[in-house]
Specification:
- The complex is a heterodimer of chains A (about 190) and B (about 350).
- The relative contact order of chain A is 0.15.
- Chain A is an all-alpha fold and about 190 residues long.
- Chain A has a single domain, classed as LemA-like domain (de novo design (two linked rop proteins)), CATH 1.20.1440.20.
- Chain B is mostly helical and about 350 residues long.
- Chain B folds into two domains: about 130 residues, no CATH class; about 180 residues, Zincin-like.
- Helix content of chain B is about 65%, strand content about 5%.
- Chain B contains eleven helices and four strands, in the order ααβαβββαααααααα.
- Chain B has a four-stranded mixed β-sheet with strand order 1-2-4-3, sandwiched between helices.
- In chain B, a hairpin with a 7-residue loop joins strand 3 and strand 4.
- In chain B, helix 1 packs parallel to helix 6, helix 5 packs across helix 8 and helix 6 packs antiparallel against helix 7.
- The radius of gyration of chain B is 24 Å and the shape is elongated.
- Chain B starts with 6 loop residues before the first helix and ends in a 6-residue tail after the last helix.
- Classes of the chains: A mainly alpha (about 190), B mainly alpha (about 350).
- Chains A and B meet through helix 1 and helix 5 of A and helix 3 and helix 5 of B.
């Protein structure tokens, strides 16, 4: 009876280790995948910006600085996007969000821009992309939080080393200004700031 | 951060419910088929001594075959049939600004839920409404009426789509498609068998007087069988309604979790509520799928015993109150309560 009991305990323990290990690996991959989803949306935003700049350039002769800020922020964000960590990407993209937000506010002052169907479509595309970035970030933070919690909780933390689990960095919004503009949807609201 | 009920609990609950419904229906079909055979067998046994003429359970086999085929076909074709019956058209190449916005909003919610983008449909109907259907996330379809696009703003549209995305993510769409196909089979079968009963003297026949305990047993089984046949469509519909009502609150909560903006769904529901004209394009078959009852039945506005039994949707006022409660909690947590 003794050896049998021992065997049963060992088998149960082994099964648990396998389950916990696989659970952590699954969560890790989900986190990586969620991060990839943000990347997809960021790339889309970077692709859309030249379009927008070209469309509004003619009508906004006097707002060169605002446009330049968007262009600069975009190239910075693209540079940090390739191989940068969560923090760097978050900071660069935060700058870009801020610059875009300012551009949208300025655009409100140009009635002929606002009434142009082309600009309206572009603005909708960009607002939607901004929203998708925000939602992808929300999903990433949720998934990463789940992953972090799991690897810290007892008893899963015992196999965290085995699964090479590391705390995933969350995408925090550092910029106070960005916090104030959660979704760029100025076509429906009064300009803020 | 995550508000509302746990995702995996909801999915697990829906999986359990799906299995329970399937088991119940299999039992029911078995009774519908082989119960009839049992009655015939007992009747035959009571008439003839020794040799029993009725041996082959043909009712059971026919019923099971028909039920299995019909259920399978409507499970595979159900979502398309529902969309077809409402006259929905798929938005493959959006033309107007509103349509482009709708596609964008659906994409946003798919990103938020971490799911593939469902197919988007528009129903040309002035009454604001929306529904989701499909078998799982990869076959999911979201349909909204043109009336909804005209009435709500972008935030509210997002909230409505998030509610439908909640149905997709929680696997409500699968459960509802399954239930719809099974209820359909029951209705068809009990109608058909009722007609057979009325039309035929196939139960009588055989010679000799029926008597003794076997004849009594045959009668009892037969009466029970007929009663189930008559009640089955009603009972199965009532059960389907109960499931759908339950799912609406959960989809509201999941939608709020996706957008983190319960207030927008509350105001969208208020707008849908004030345009209460029946959605003429959506027939009874798809009513239980919609965000608001398309038939505008009074029973959906009340709470209470009868309403609980017959309504496909919880009362709108209750849903709005719950969502506003969530919005209040959110503001409180963020320390942004208005000073009043």
């Amino acid at each position: 009876m003794g050896p049998m009991l021992f065997l049963v305990v060992v088998v149960v323990l082994l099964l648990w280790v396998v389950g916990a290990y696989n659970g952590l690996i699954a969560l890790k991959n989900q986190t990586v995948n969620a991060w990839k989803q943000i990347d997809v949306q960021l790339k889309r935003r970077h692709d859309l910006i030249p379009n927008l700049v070209n469309t509004v350039k003619g009508s906004m002769e006097f707002e060169k600085d605002t446009l330049q800020a968007v262009i600069d922020a975009r190239s910075k964000a693209m540079a940090s996007g390739s191989g940068g960590g969560v923090k760097e990407t978050a900071a660069a993209e935060g700058m870009l969000s801020g610059a875009l937000g300012k551009l949208f506010v300025v655009m409100e002052r140009y009635p002929d821009l606002k009434s142009s169907q082309n600009v309206r479509d572009l603005q909708e595309e960009l607002s939607s992309t901004e929203n998708k970035i925000a939602f992808a970030r929300q999903l990433y933070n949720d998934v990463a939080t789940g992953y972090n919690t799991k690897q810290q909780q007892f008893p899963t933390n015992l196999v965290a080393g085995l699964a090479k689990a590391e705390i995933a960095e969350l995408w925090e919004i550092e910029d106070k200004a960005e916090r104030a503009v959660p979704a760029v949807d100025l076509s429906l609201k009064k300009p803020q700031g | 951060m995550t508000a509302g009920p746990n995702l995996f609990e909801q999915q697990a609950k829906n999986r359990r419910l799906t299995v329970a419904w399937l088991a119940l229906f299999i039992l029911f079909f078995a009774w519908l088929g082989f119960g009839g055979d049992l009655a015939l067998y007992l009747a035959a046994a009571s008439r003839t001594e020794g040799q029993v003429a009725y041996r082959f359970p043909w009712i059971g086999i026919v019923v099971t075959t028909i039920a299995a085929i019909t259920a399978w076909v409507s499970w595979r074709k159900g979502p398309q049939q529902v969309l077809w019956s409402t006259g929905a058209r798929e938005l493959t190449a959006p033309q107007t600004f509103e349509e482009k916005q709708l596609v964008n909003v659906v994409e946003e919610m798919a990103v938020a839920a971490g799911l593939p983008k469902p197919k988007v449909y528009v129903i040309d109907d002035p009454d604001p409404n929306a529904f989701a259907t499909g078998r799982d996330a990869s076959t999911a379809c979201i349909a909204v009426t043109s009336g909804l696009l005209a009435v709500v703003n972008r935030e509210e549209l997002q909230a409505v789509v998030a509610h439908e995305m909640g149905h997709v993510r929680n696997l409500d769409v699968r459960l509802m498609t399954l239930i719809a196909s099974l209820v359909g089979v029951i209705v068809v079968l009990s109608n058909g068998m009722g007609r057979m009963l009325r039309g035929g003297g196939w139960l009588r026949g055989g010679k000799g007087k029926a008597s003794g305990p076997l004849a009594l047993a045959a009668l009892v089984v037969f009466v029970l069988w007929v009663i189930t046949l008559i009640l089955a469509p009603f009972i199965s519909r009532i059960m389907a309604m109960a499931v759908s009502r339950d799912r609406e609150y959960l989809a509201d909560a999941t939608g709020a979790e996706l957008t983190r903006n319960p207030g927008a769904l509350a105001s969208a529901l208020e707008k849908i509520e004030t345009h209460e004209a029946p959605t003429t394009h959506i027939k009874e078959g798809a009513a239980h799928l919609c965000i608001a009852d398309p038939l505008g039945r009074d029973v959906n506005l009340k709470e209470g015993r009868l309403a609980d039994l017959l309504a496909t949707h919880p009362p709108m006022a209750m849903r709005i109150t719950r969502l506003k409660g969530m919005a209040f909690q959110q503001l409180k947590a963020a320390g942004q309560l208005p000073a009043t």
